[in-house]
Recover the amino acids of this structure.
């Protein structure tokens, strides 16, 4: 029995008219009738009752019809099923993005999305470092950029960027300056953005400043980076943030706020790429390792 015999049989069974079925199959009615007779002979069953005016299925023909349709459907599905097996379906995954990611690092994220686009649709997901790290730990995010240090033992991490930090000070009090010493800031309170939005590194930085003689503090709550800038703009305090003027964190600066390098202190904020070491994302992780293999600095 050939596949064509089943196709011919289904066409006649659906049309119940040899001439209409022949037109559908782009062939003449006479050879179609002969092919059906050949199939009936091979099966040892009459499949159609033929008369001058109409064609009907016999009991054997009615039983064969769903079987033939199923066989043809499976055969027709072979090309797309084979393609699906050879080329896994594209899936959507998320990469966490903390606030203030440097544009050079964003370029690498875009390059990663382009590299893996045949297999993954890589989407960015915002959040604080703590939330993003937890998202990777819980499997909600495939990867995340995170401000280091991160101590979760379930996560693999790759350092991807170091950003030098500077003193965020009132511009009118430090006009014309190209740097500032810590001693000059000893009488200013240090103000950090609320702990729920700042990376853990800033806790270490706070401790360092205290040891180096900067003792006064202003603690803000229920505000964001803009609140920190507001306090500094009024001349009441200083803070620490990214020195590179291309950093998006400079977008929070108000009038009368500038960022100066320290002359006697060199803080830096490190960013890493993190993923669960036990999650099967081999293709994505290998592409990420290649694109982020050379750490950036600013």
């Amino acid at each position: 029995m050939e596949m064509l015999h089943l196709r011919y049989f289904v066409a006649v069974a659906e049309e119940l008219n040899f001439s209409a079925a022949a037109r559908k199959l782009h062939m003449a009615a006479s050879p179609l009738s002969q092919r059906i007779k050949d199939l009936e002979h091979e099966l040892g069953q009459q499949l159609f009752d033929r008369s001058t005016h109409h064609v009907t299925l016999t009991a054997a023909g009615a039983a064969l019809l769903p079987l033939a349709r199923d066989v043809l459907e499976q055969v027709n599905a072979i090309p797309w099923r084979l393609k699906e097996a050879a080329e896994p379906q594209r899936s959507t995954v998320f990469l966490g993005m903390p606030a203030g990611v440097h544009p050079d690092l964003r370029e690498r994220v875009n390059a990663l999305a382009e590299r893996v686009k045949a297999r993954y649709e890589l989407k960015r997901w915002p959040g604080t470092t703590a939330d993003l790290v937890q998202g990777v730990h819980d499997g909600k995010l495939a990867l995340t950029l995170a401000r280091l240090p991160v101590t979760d033992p379930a996560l693999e991490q790759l350092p991807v960027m170091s950003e030098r930090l500077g003193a965020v000070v009132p511009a009118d009090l430090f006009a014309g300056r190209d740097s500032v010493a810590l001693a000059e800031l000893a009488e200013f309170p240090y103000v950090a953005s609320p702990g729920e939005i700042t990376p853990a590194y800033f806790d270490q930085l706070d401790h360092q400043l205290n040891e180096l003689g900067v003792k006064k503090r202003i603690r803000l709550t229920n505000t964001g980076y803009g609140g920190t800038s507001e306090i500094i703009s009024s001349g009441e305090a200083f803070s620490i943030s990214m020195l590179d003027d291309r950093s998006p964190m400079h977008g929070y600066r108000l009038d009368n706020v500038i960022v100066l390098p320290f002359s006697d202190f060199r803080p830096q904020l490190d960013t890493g790429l993190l993923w669960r070491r036990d999650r099967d994302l081999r293709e994505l992780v290998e592409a990420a390792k290649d694109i982020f293999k050379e750490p950036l600095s600013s």
Observations:
- The chain has nine helices and twelve strands.
- The mean pLDDT is 91.
- Residues 205 and 267 are 8 Å apart (CA to CA).
